[in-house]
Amino acid sequence: MDNQQIDFSNLPADFNIEMGIDWYINELIKQKPEFKDLDNEVIEQIKKDLRPRVESYINMSIVKNIPENKLEEFETVLDTNDQNKIQEFCNKYIPDINQVIAMALISFRDSYIGNNY
C-alpha cells in the first residue's frame, strides 16, 4: 500500500463539508497512479462515482457512533433534511464527531488506495 499522506495545508478559510468531500476525492484521485494519464472526462466520472461512496462511508460511521437509544430520534432529524439540525444532533450525541469522520475518511482512503475498485 502507498504511504502517501493527504496534504491538508492548502485548505481555504471558508472550507465546508461539501467542499471537503470534493477536495478529498481530488486528493484520492491524485494518489492513484493508474489515474495519472486518464482523460478529464474519465476523471470526472470517477469523481462522480466516488462521491456517494465516500458519503455513504461517512454516514455509516456516524450511525455506528450514535447511541442506540437515539437512533429513532436521529431518523426523525434526518427526515427534516435540515443540515443544521443534523449537525447539531451529531455534535450533541457524538462528542468526537470530527474524529469519527476523520477516521472514516482515513479508512476509506486506505481501502481505496490499497485496492483497485
Describe the protein's architecture and organization.
The protein has 117 residues and is mostly helical. The protein has one domain. The protein is 67% helix and 0% strand. Helix 1 packs across helix 2 and helix 2 packs across helix 5. The radius of gyration is 16 Å and the shape is elongated.
List the helices and strands and how they pair.
Layout: H1 17-30, H2 40-65, H3 71-79, H4 83-93, H5 97-114
Helix pairs in contact: 1-2, 2-5
The SSE string, one letter per element, is HHHHH
Overall average pLDDT: 84
Number of helices: 5
Beta-strand proportion: under 5%
The helix/strand class is mainly alpha
* Number of separate domains: 1
Low-confidence stretches: none
Number of strands: 0
For the sheet with most strands, the description reads: none
Q: What is the helix fraction of residues, given as a range?
A: 55-70%
Radius of gyration: 16 Å
Which word captures the global form? elongated
Compute the separation of the termini in Å: 14 Å
Task: Describe the structure concisely.
The chain is an all-alpha fold. The chain is 67% helix and 0% strand.
From the structure above, extract its key features:
117 residues
